[in-house]
Hints:
The chain has helices spanning 16-28, 46-58, 74-81, 94-106, 120-132, 136-180; strands at residues 4-10, 34-39, 62-68, 87-89, 115-116.
Amino acid sequence: MVEEKIIVLLGSTSDLPFAHRVKDFLRDSHFPVKCVYRISSAHRNTNKVLDDLKSYEQSESKIVYVTMAGLSDALSGVVAGNSQYPVIACPPDLEKHGLAKIFSSVMMPQGISVALVSSPENAALSAVKILALSNPSLKKQVAQYMNNLKSAVAKADNDLLRKEEHEEEREHIERIEHAEHGEHVEHPEDT
């Protein structure tokens, strides 16, 4: 059976806390996709990156790479330029470096495709959606996940409406009680 994997390539071990959010998301959302972590510095050991890619490219697995490298993010471009599989850049320092980081992660030459996703959870979800294109069972799980999100929004909205209705009813009762006792209570709408 062909295995589906998200290969998370890290620039260094300092990126691990950020990267663990990918596996946490997969577990918490019950997506049965294997997640593998590797340290792969495009600057410090390019040959290792290329050797690792070669072994993955020769495997029978369906793969999506998620690259998590700080500073210049050469890792994403090197992986995309040497792989047949999709590459999602998810830089751990995006908030710190802003536009410069976005530029270094996605401004690639023609034919070198890198997608940018800002959070590990959304990078994991994007990878799962890509893998689901050829897996009907996973596709159903993605649809269920999306339906759960919609249901959560509808429930939150209904809860808020009930709370507002309850508040309005409570304020109305307070006004009646105070009017019966000859007291005036100031409410925000009275001002």
